[in-house]
Amino acid sequence: MQTIQDYITNHKQRFLNELIELLKIPSVSADPAFNQDVLNTADSVKNSLEKAGCDKVEICETPGYPIVYGEKIIDPNLPTVLVYGHYDVQPADPIDLWDSPPFEPVIKKTETHPDGAIFARGACDDKGQMYMHVKALEYMTKTGNLPCNVKFMIEGEEEVGSESLAWFVPRNKEKLANDVILISDTGMIANNIPSITTGLRGLSYVEVEVTGPNRDLHSGLYGGAVANPINVLTKMIASLHDENKHITIPGFYDKVEELSREERDEMAKAPFSLEDYKNALAIDAVYGEEGFSTNERNSIRPTLDVNGIWGGYTGEGAKTVIASKAYAKISMRLVPNQEWREITELFKNHFESIAPEGVSVKVTPHHGGQGYVTPIDNIAYQAASKAYEATFGVTPIPQRSGGSIPIVALFEEELKSKTILMGFGLNSDAIHSPNEHFGVWNYLKGIETIPYFYKYFTELSK
């Protein structure tokens, strides 16, 4: 295993060049205009897995975008690690807020990444982190250091709900059989404070539509006489939180897991500077549910946020109009025990019930998924911890994440496997935002650390 550092040093530029080429492909799964680009990215991932040493690689068709499956089976009696990742990316909008084009990757030094960071959509979420596993496999196969079997399942719909993956997994249980699932689609506290994500929030994502008059109206002739859908929508949304930032949907908190004071005190030991947090976001105050810290609000508590809102005239200049319709996209991050379909129904019933006379409301569910908590007393977590210790020199901190990877709960239900989340990104990497980036150091550190997981997991499985 000592040769991994030398291998990375010798191939560093190639590793970067290959990732940059992958990032150039705009694999935006949410927009049909990028359909061919998404398919081209699947082909690229397939080629990379073949070159890295997989004996079998195939593009598996689904009702939606394909899943790239690869495997390297060296001995059926040895443990099998199933690597999951995704090759699709978020839309790059708003384009004008990027300092460089989102699909023309550039490497620039930042305060957080003095060795440079790759700026591009998908750099951290998840092409960069997924590709670490491909290069780690390359190292292990080319140098004879692969200690167990490995399978890859790389999908193209994670950013739009993984519907095709939910279709694929139950139909391919034998193909996907494994002893542990390994994912890098999360982050860590800091480059000198590694952490392992042990919990993920669930998700319910909906779109709402408020309709008033049967056409757009002149605001002078009709203003004050008919309900304005935009005014109504904003008032309805505002009512979804009370003065303590508590979500007002009846039944919303009924199944929320309440952590003990001891568990919350353990979480509070993770290094965190509120001032640094505010400075990084250029805000003068934090905001959230009364009675909880910032780190608790974004990890162990459920939330409701408007992700987009529109209606009426938004072009240049003025147009005095009362819009016929107003729209919003709303996401709810959920904690373990909250069932996302049930929460979606609770939201729908409540939102429709608070609509005033003069408008009609339509709620369209988009996608969702369950939350997940992984135990820290199993051999897979121990192997991950030892891997970080080997390359970072310190023991990683277990940490719950505010993000969602809905398919993790599906994996446990269908494949009966635990998932280990070894993320190497940072909160400052701007995933889902303009100027997304991934540190060069982090990318290479992931490639260095992952083979140690295989080593220790195989040893601990004996």
Structure overview:
The chain has 462 residues and is α+β, with helices and mostly antiparallel strands. The protein folds into 2 domains: 3-200 and 371-460, Zn peptidases (Aminopeptidase), CATH 3.40.630.10; 202-256 and 302-369, Alpha-Beta Plaits. It is 34% helix and 21% strand. It has 13 helices and 18 strands. The strands form 5 sheets. Strands 1-2-6-3-7-17 form a 6-stranded mixed sheet, sandwiched between helices. The chain has a 4-stranded antiparallel sheet with strand order 11-13-9-14. A 3-stranded antiparallel sheet has the order 4-5-18. A hairpin with an 8-residue loop joins strand 4 (106-108) and strand 5. Helix 4 (163-171) runs parallel beside helix 12 and helix 11 crosses helix 13 (440-460). The radius of gyration is 23 Å and the shape is globular.
